[in-house]
Design goal:
Elements lengths: L2 E4 L2 E4 L4 E7 L8 E7 L6 E7 L5 E3 L7 E6 L4 E6 L8 E9 L2 E4 L3 E6 L1
Length: 115
């Protein structure tokens, strides 16, 4: 399983970015697709997850109302729309897939939010 993440970059506070993660497996073969992030000196944390079976989404409190996770099943791709970005959102963002109980990770894409 390969995950190709893209869309990171440098943005000013209050700006927006959209991350994309294309998977080499079919969307119907995953249990969930998620985005994690790891800021310098901090542990990796779950940002958002999309449950395939019922389409529900869950977000960490700090991004609720600002970030939106979505998917394009035909493209086997998951997105993370990030609005109203804050400097504390600066991190490497990782795509994650649960495929029959196995976790797979993309290489990460850096998001830097300047104040």
């Amino acid at each position: 399983v390969q995950l190709q993440a893209s869309g990171g970059g440098l943005v000013q506070a209050g700006g927006s970015l959209r991350l994309s993660c294309a998977a080499s497996i079919r969307y119907i073969d995953v249990s969930s697709m998620a985005w994690y992030r790891q800021a310098p000196g901090k542990q990796r944390e779950l940002v958002a997850v999309l449950i395939r079976s019922d389409g529900t989404t869950h977000y960490t409190d700090s991004v609720k109302g600002r970030f939106t996770i979505s998917r394009d099943a035909a493209k086997n791709t998951v997105y993370l729309q990030m609005n109203s970005l804050k400097p504390e959102d600066t991190a490497v963002y990782y795509c994650n897939v649960d495929h029959y109980g196995h976790q797979y990770w993309g290489k990460g894409t850096l998001v830097t939010v300047s104040s």
